[in-house]
Amino acid sequence: MNPILVSILALFWAGLASAPAPVQLKNSQTTTPPKSVQVGQGEVARWAGNCKRCSFEKRAWPAVNGTCYYPVDMEMKPGEYTISRRTTGGKLESARLLVTEKPCRQEDITNFPKKEYITISSQNQARASREAAVIQPLIAYQATVRPAVFDLPVGKPASPLPQGEGNFGACRTINGQSRDRHTGQDYPIAAGKPVQSVGNGRVLLATDGFYTGNAVYIDHGNGLISEYFHLKSFTVKANQTVQKGQKIGVVGETGRVTGPHLHFGVRWYGACINPGFLLIDPAELPEVK
């Protein structure tokens, strides 16, 4: 072989041997961090943009106006969960939902005026059980739901609506006896003032309950149920169609109460959530990013 060519080849192979090894990028440098959202117990997260169907745990539901909403029950165990959505283009996407604990406010009620709610008779216990057997299936998660007939934010349950008592999810005692957590938000409104539906919908039930007093439950589609308790009277009946802002009754003090006020509650896909989150601009809700 030509001596000059041999020298050139020797220099070439020597250069390869001394060249630095290619840099290997770590996975964290080449992959996109997973999307996530942090939300407290009793709150609602959202995933906006071209959504068609949403899922959370073993539950699934249609999107509302192209947005997926993920209501978190006030007693859901804190931790990390997986949520998913199907886009209008058919793409399946997942994200992490981080549920944080929201300690319940302690509310101790003394000198409760209605003695039948302190020592509850066997007849009233049986009555409450019968009523719960009717109501629970109505407000629980349903695999098949009517299409949404509401927009967010929903309307106000009274006009004007004063600031709420901030007692959603409160841990209560009455005359020293423990009671179930408070499932709604109380508003200090005088007896006789009108109560109105927060959105279009269909009345599921209008009834006199032992604990709730005169109560109205309205289905707004897409699994959203609104509740209005302790009314003096109601002006609607089951299966009646109502419109947003329509009067459905008047404020009272029936059932287990210390005085007149409006209890407004919400169940969404079976989750008991703070209704105040549906009264604000949805853009203010925690968002998947």
Give a structural overview.
With 289 residues, the protein is mainly beta. The chain has a domain at 30-100: Macroglobulin (MG2) domain (Immunoglobulin-like, Sandwich). Helices cover 13% and strands 36% of the residues. The chain has three helices and 19 strands. The chain has helices at 3-18, 27-30, 122-139, and strands at residues 36-40, 44-48, 51-56, 59-62, 67-71, 79-87, 92-100, 106-109, 171-174, 177-179, 185-187, 194-196, 201-209, 213-219, 224-234, 241-242, 247-251, 262-268, 271-273. Strands 11, 12, 13, 14, 15, 16, 17, 18 and 19 form a nine-stranded antiparallel β-sheet that branches. The radius of gyration is 28 Å and the shape is globular.
Question: What is the CA-based Rg, rounded?
Answer: 28 Å
Beta strands, count: 19
CATH architecture of the domain at 30-100: Sandwich
Which class of the domain at 30-100 in CATH terms? Mainly Beta
Averaged pLDDT: 91
Most strands sheet: 9 strands, antiparallel
Overall outline: globular
**Helix/strand order, N-terminal first:** HHEEEEEEEEHEEEEEEEEEEE
* Unreliable sequence segments: 3-30
Beta-strand percentage range = 35-45%
Helix content: 10-25%
Number of helices: 3
Distance between the amino and carboxyl termini: 65 Å
**For this structure, what is the CATH homologous superfamily of the domain at 30-100?**
Macroglobulin (MG2) domain
Q: Tell me the structural class.
A: mainly beta
State the CATH topology of the domain at 30-100: Immunoglobulin-like
